[in-house]
Amino acid sequence: MLGFVLELKKSYQAIRDEQPEESFHRVYTFNSVRKSMSTVVAREGGGYRVFTKGASEMVLKK
Amino acid sequence: MVSFHLCSRCAFIYGVDGKLEKFTREHQERLVREVIEPMACDGLRTIAVAYRDFVPGKAEINQVHYDNEPNWDDEDSIINNLTCMLIVGIEDPVRPEVPSSLLRYFFLNINSRIYINCRCLKPFGSANGRVSQSAW
């Protein structure tokens, strides 16, 4: 995924500086049952955005 | 692989031209059949990335409005009705130490099996732990 960011001619560090780990509202760490991990960040203008990344069968299946 | 997608953590998906669509069960099954299974059969691990917005104001169809702070401890409810952004296939070969470990177990009379989460995968003879599309 980091390679993909570079491929898009974006800088990981710039994104990370803008959104440092200390600013995360909540982190759901990876575990082998869920096979996914999620991070909650504050949205500009209020509210939150949850990002989830994981094995496709876990994100697509409940 | 077989029991994929009876219902879903993703309720929406960005389709053609980035258009937001409802992610129906039929749509999910088609995605698995036409995208995920072919990638899996080429030995790729498929990863999905999705998101969900919680907004204090007016919520779009794939967003959630809240008056009180969402209960972040209720992970099952939070990580649900997501919007799928992308699915990627990545190479994820057997780690180099695995073959020698299996050999050691063999000599210790311990039976080992490698289970692959796809009925159509078979270890590939030559290259670095990759698998190929081939019926058992």
Residue runs with pLDDT of under 50 for 5 or more positions of chain A: none
**What would the average pLDDT of chain B be, to the nearest integer?**
79
Q: Mean pLDDT of chain A, as a whole number?
A: 87
Shape of chain A: globular
Q: For the report, how would you describe the main beta sheet of chain A?
A: 3 strands, antiparallel
Would you list the SSEs of chain A in sequence order as H and E? Answer: HHEEEH
If helices are DSSP runs of H or I spanning 4 or more residues, what is the number of helices of chain A? 3
Properties at a glance:
heterodimer; A: 62 residues; alpha+beta; 34% strand; globular; B: 136 residues; alpha/beta; 2 domains; two-stranded antiparallel sheet; 3 helices; 24% helix; 29% strand
Q: Care to describe what's here?
A:
- The complex is a heterodimer of chains A (62) and B (136).
- Chain A is an alpha+beta fold.
- Chain A has helices spanning 2-7, 12-18, 56-60, and strands at 26-31, 36-42, 48-55.
- Chain A has three helices and three strands.
- Chain A has a three-stranded antiparallel beta sheet with strand order 1-2-3.
- Chain A is globular, with a radius of gyration of 13 Å.
- With 136 residues, chain B is an alpha/beta fold.
- Chain B is built from three helices and seven strands, in the order E-E-H-E-E-H-E-H-E-E.
- Chain B has helices spanning 25-41, 75-78, 97-107, and strands at residues 10-14, 20-22, 44-55, 63-65, 82-91, 121-123, 131-133.
- Chain B is elongated, with a radius of gyration of 20 Å.
- The model of chain B is unreliable at 1-7 (pLDDT under 50).
- The chains are: A alpha+beta (62), B alpha/beta (136).
- Strand 3 (48-55) of chain A pairs antiparallel with strand 3 of chain B, so a sheet runs across the interface.
